[in-house]
Design a protein that fits this description.
This protein starts with 21 loop residues before the first helix and ends in a 5-residue tail after the last strand. Strands 1, 2, 3, 4, 5, 6, 7, 8 and 9 form a nine-stranded mixed beta sheet that branches. It is 26% helix and 18% strand. The radius of gyration is 17 Å and the shape is globular. The protein has one domain: Muramoyl-pentapeptide Carboxypeptidase, domain 2 (2-Layer Sandwich), CATH 3.30.1380.10. It is of the alpha+beta class. The longest helix has 15 residues.
Length: 240
């Protein structure tokens, strides 16, 4: 199936970013906050269904194990996906992430081709295995992909990561999770975006995958899965 959501939802904001928006206000502070009772978090995704993340799918990537390191052409394609202005050394690239515990990182994390190690450390902590309270690897390319998607929404919505890095124990405890899930090596994120339909988010991920020639995209009942592995697309359902 192609084109999961060809149209933007009603009221989808466009135009220039609003400097008064909370995201930009956070950039003036520490960039990390705790849970805010007044800002309700969408329902946390539960364990996965019996539908596993496939090794190959509709886009013709059949069999084989996804590479643990993206191919050089993937990195080059990802760089080309960024607007020319964002690639310039004078302009930073931003990201606004929140995890299921309500912690946030809203900060510039990349200047030109150089990533900020301190911000990446905070993002790695944010995307840790919350069940095991254990941090894992976080490839900067995954952050780049989330930032590119978020730029399309003018940074008006946080990306709420419901599952980032997973330990073996956590992955085995998720019914239907792939035994060799890219979550185990920090190359995947399950996420929601408050105010945006999941079908719309998945369609944006699909367009980005079409443009770059890689990225795995899975649409589930309560979240969208995105990984920086081979190009493929599937649908499933999260157990309620």
């Amino acid at each position: 199936m192609r084109g999961l959501c060809p149209r933007a939802p009603a009221g989808d904001p466009r135009g220039s970013p609003d400097p008064s928006h909370p995201f930009f206000q956070r950039l003036c502070g520490e960039g990390v906050t705790g849970a805010r009772p007044s800002d309700p978090l969408p329902a946390k995704a539960s364990n996965r269904s019996q539908v596993q993340e496939p090794a190959g799918s509709w886009w013709g990537v059949q069999g084989g194990k996804a590479p643990l390191r993206p191919h050089r052409r993937h990195l080059l394609a990802a760089a080309l996906a960024l607007p020319c202005a964002a690639r310039a050394a004078v302009l930073p690239r931003f990201v606004w992430l929140r995890n299921a515990a309500g912690e946030e990182v809203a900060a510039p994390y990349r200047q030109g081709e150089a990533h900020d190690p301190a911000v990446l450390l905070r993002l790695r902590h944010l995307m840790r295995d919350l069940r095991a309270q254990e941090e894992g690897p976080l490839p900067p390319l995954l952050v780049d992909m989330l930032s590119v998607l978020q730029e399309g929404w003018e940074y008006r919505h946080p990306v709420v990561v419901t599952s980032g890095y997973r330990t073996d124990a956590t992955n085995q405890g998720n019914e239907g999770a792939a035994p060799a899930s890219l979550h185990l090596v920090g190359m995947a994120a399950d996420f929601q975006v408050p105010g945006l339909p999941l079908e719309f988010i998945a369609a944006a991920c699909e367009r980005l995958s079409d443009r770059l020639g890689f990225l795995g995209v899975g649409l589930y009942a309560r979240f969208v899965h995105l990984d920086i592995g081979p190009r493929r697309l599937w649908t499933g359902s999260a157990r309620r």
